[in-house]
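Researcher: Next entry in the queue.
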Amino acid sequence: MKSKKSLLAISALMVAVGLSACTNNGNGGNNAGSNASESGSVSSASPAPSASASKPVEIKVLTEGSVNVGTGVLNDSLLETKKKALIADETVSPRVQASDFSYVKGQSYKSSLYAYFYQNIIKDKMAEKNISVNMEDWGWGETLTQKETAGFLAGNIPDVIVGETQMPGFAMQGLLEPFPDDMAEEIRENIAPAAWKPMEVGGKIYGFAAQPGVSSLFWNKALVKEAGIDPDKAPESWDELLSNINKVTEAGKGKFYGGGVYAGPNAGGYLRYGPLLVINNGGFIDAEGNPAFNSDANIKTVEFLRSLYANHPAGLMVSPEEGPYFDAFKKQQTAYIIDGPWRASESVALGIDYGMAPIPLSEGGQAGNITIGAAFNAVPKNAKNKEAAFEYIRALYSDEIQNLIADGDLRSPVKKSVAETAEYQAAHPAMYLHYQAMSGNVQGLPTFKNNDSKVWQLFGDAITKAVMSNGDIKATLDDAQERADKEIGK
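Model: Structure for this entry, 490 residues:
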């Protein structure tokens, strides 16, 4: 990797994207079992032929926020429009010179041009394959999910679609094309699991994220130090973490609190405390993909969540709206937080001296995580140009794109040959920690077979009730389990 000097502003540009892209809906997927159809798939016996050997092909591709330069055919004209818009932006122009737009592969870039250069690389690589790219913007979150669902039903869907928690569910429903075997093998060997593992169904890969997120533990060093705790030492266990959090709350005397993790009854909550369930050998589902809310492991995890509740302003930890929870950390009112990688660059931008480490393990627990802010790209089963669409996805894990992500320093690259170098580790220590967290037991939020949103709400409400009260946690989760089983028709 030809690493360049990191620019703080690139992180600031992308923070808002990361925060807004990670929790807009709770329709997820899982990697347990599959009923996905194999009919009409690209042959898995041999690699997909190169599109460059045929006549020119135009593919339709959905955009995602952090790399969106606009809609239309991805060419010099569209990119020139983006250039002019950036120069005209008064918030950008003081730090961006016209010369910064002279794109040469491998040269350094300004943060505001991240999407510009990202798409320029894609344009160039697709041109080599005689492929042009027509970008379409269908929004994000629930809006995107609804449009994609309607597109599948109408048989009118782009060649490459993108999404977050809804994408594994599409794979399980047989709506996506499995990656060709040679491509899947290349990804398994060379790419961090968080980029593809949540999109693996029945031994096939159905999607890829170029810059996914997973959660880590962050803390405000100044608040931790004020509580008499070594600000440079990461807690190694849940017990040590809870002890530190209690000490900070006591030292804060109502002015600041120990904090912990957001546990609201929504996708934002499930994504943040979900890793704790996984770490403690629990989770949202069983091996058959059915709700598994009241497992012994989950009960112990909820007990831990309850112990964190008092270390926040009243009601904040389970607030229906997630924004106030993260605002509290940004305003230095809470010390510890479990969140995605954007928390690092945002803290720097806000002048917060922060610490970052893997989420501590429970007693007997194992490392695990939930993808967050992961924009998975996939090829629909009824896409018109599947071979060219897969060439587009191949470009997303090219050295050029992955080096660009590496130098951005908001997300870590997913390509092992880029991230697992001494140069990258030295230049981007925080994001290297994030890269390490993307390996191992990384999951996505599951999609329940029937009444998905209702089942999720039953679980979210049960967690809120259990955390806020002194009632019997097992009884609360048992009740949620019974109701969930009825909803899925078990």
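Model: The chain has 19 helices and 15 strands.
Researcher: Noted, moving on.
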